[in-house]
Amino acid sequence: MPHYALLNNNIVVQVVVGSGDDLESYYAELMGLTCKRTSYNTRGGVHVGGGTPFRKNYAGIGYAYDAERDAFIPPKPFPSWVLDEAFCLWGAPVAMPDDGNMYNWNESTLGWEAV
Description:
The chain is mainly beta. The protein has one helix at about 25-30, and strands at about 5-10, 10-15, 35-40, 40-45, 45, 65, 70-75, 80-85, 90, 105, 110-115. It folds into two domains: about 1-75, no CATH class; about 75-115, no CATH class. The radius of gyration is 16 Å and the shape is elongated.
């Protein structure tokens, strides 16, 4: 089933499951908000089931809708992180070590710390 994101000032305030395709206008009028279709199976511009991706990422409450990119962008997790323009996802300014260990980002040191 399709999902629809309801926007207030281009911020997602609600996501609803639709009863059919192409209902953006219907939900916009019903709720009095801007409405954009989103896909539960889309992340980073890829639909995990091989279907059609919608707007780069599945919309969540607090996500921003960028009309220029026609994309939903998650909230920025840390001030130092940068937006990957191709996927509309945030990434650390330093790559996480790829040694099989678990890490958490430390914003005060701008680095990864082993868990």
